[in-house]
Every structure is written in structure tokens, then in C-alpha cells.
Amino acid sequence: MKPLVIAHRGDSRNAPENTLASFKRALEMGADGIELDVQLTKDGQLVVIHDERVDRTTDGIGFVKDFTLKELKRLDAGIKFDKKFAGERIPTLYEVFELIGHKNFIINIEIKSGVVLYPGIEEKLIKAIEDYDFEDRVVISSFNHYSLRDVKRMAPEFKIGLLYQCGLVEPWHMAIRMKAYSLHPFYFNIIPELVKGCKKNNIKLFPWTVDRKEDMEMMIKAGVDAIITDDPQTLINLLEKGE
């Protein structure tokens, strides 16, 4: 079975990451889903941005947590990527959900609650997902496994994915203990033992961030369930060629 194509922060090779423009491109090219990051504004709104600071991807300076939504919406989230994207804004999670609508599309939502802690973000995220009846299509991931534990306690039916970077010994046991749907390792960690252990215990594998063609081929051969990539078009072409 072919792995799912998950566009990392949208089509982030060709459009500013974590913007509606980037997500729209991923939808149109035929990706199976997107990966995005959520944080909270000063006034408690869920916004889609990766860094805890706005400096790298916008024309602003400062921490996301120190801006109200109205203030964040004044920032340009496109101009640093390319002038043709000038005027692109940081989207709210609700705006992304509106864009996707009821298309058969997977949304991997990473809770950014490590460097900056956002008390209550899990409850707000659960409500947003329930408001759109997206429970079946969303996988909530995080490097903060306490945050994922809280999600599971509040909404046992929700799918969670454990993000990690370094090699862990038999991590599927942790996934089973936390009732996780998936493991999301840095792709260097994909070894036969891990794939075998996950398949035996019905744990999905979503490696990240796989951008080189040879690494994509390696992940496909390994038998992972989804591939998170900054270059979804190359992966789509590769999978179509292999049919």
C-alpha cells in the first residue's frame, strides 16, 4: 500500500509555509493531507505558525503569545518568502478548516507547547475540531507528550501522534501505553525493527521531514504509512511513477 503524502506546512517549497496559499496549493496538487502548527495568541485564539516568534516568517518581531489576533493579522506572512505573496496573513485554525471544508483530506496538527507553554491549548483545539466534525480526519501530534496525554484524557476518541527526533528503543510500547494512533519520528529513525513493531501493534508511522528523492524512495520501500515532506509534488510524482 502506498504511503500518504502529507505536505509539511503546506506546499512550503513553493509558497510561504503555514499560510492559506501554501495549503491551497497542497490541496490542488493532490496531496493526501497537510501538517501544520498551532499556537495561542495573547487573547487565546488558535493561530497557525511554526516558530514561537514571528520574526523568521513575517515582517514583525516578537513572540506569538504577546500579540492579539488583531495585531498578528497586521503582519505580512508572505513577503519574506516572495514579493508575489505580499499580503498573505497568518491564518487562524478555523480559517484553515474553512479552506479544507469537507474534502477527504488529512490534517496533522502539531501543538507547539514546548518552548512556550500554552495552558488550555488542548481544550481549545479539541473544541475547534469538534466544531467542524473533523475528529476522523485529524491527527494531533506534539513533541510535548504531556500535552498529548491531556488531549487523550479529554477526548479519548481523538487520534494522537508522538513526535520524536532521537532514536528510541521499541517506541511502539510507549504508543500503546498512551493509546496513540501513530509515531512521528525523524526519518533517520526508520529501521526494519521499528516498522515491524509498529505494524504488529497497528501503530501508524509518519516520518518527517523527507525531502530528497532517494530518502522518499527509502521510506516507500520501508513500508511507512505516510511521508511528511516539504516537496509533496516530487513525492506524488514518484508514487505515480511506481504504479
Automatic annotation (TrEMBL):
<dbReference type="GO" id="GO:0006629">
    <property type="term" value="P:lipid metabolic process"/>
</dbReference>
<dbReference type="GO" id="GO:0008889">
    <property type="term" value="F:glycerophosphodiester phosphodiesterase activity"/>
</dbReference>
<dbReference type="InterPro" id="IPR017946">
    <property type="entry name" value="PLC-like_Pdiesterase_TIM-brl"/>
</dbReference>
<protein>
    <submittedName>
        <fullName>Glycerophosphoryl diester phosphodiesterase</fullName>
        <ecNumber>3.1.4.46</ecNumber>
    </submittedName>
</protein>
<dbReference type="Pfam" id="PF03009">
    <property type="entry name" value="GDPD"/>
</dbReference>
<dbReference type="InterPro" id="IPR030395">
    <property type="entry name" value="GP_PDE_dom"/>
</dbReference>
<keyword id="KW-0378">Hydrolase</keyword>
<feature type="domain" description="GP-PDE">
    <location>
        <begin position="3"/>
        <end position="239"/>
    </location>
</feature>
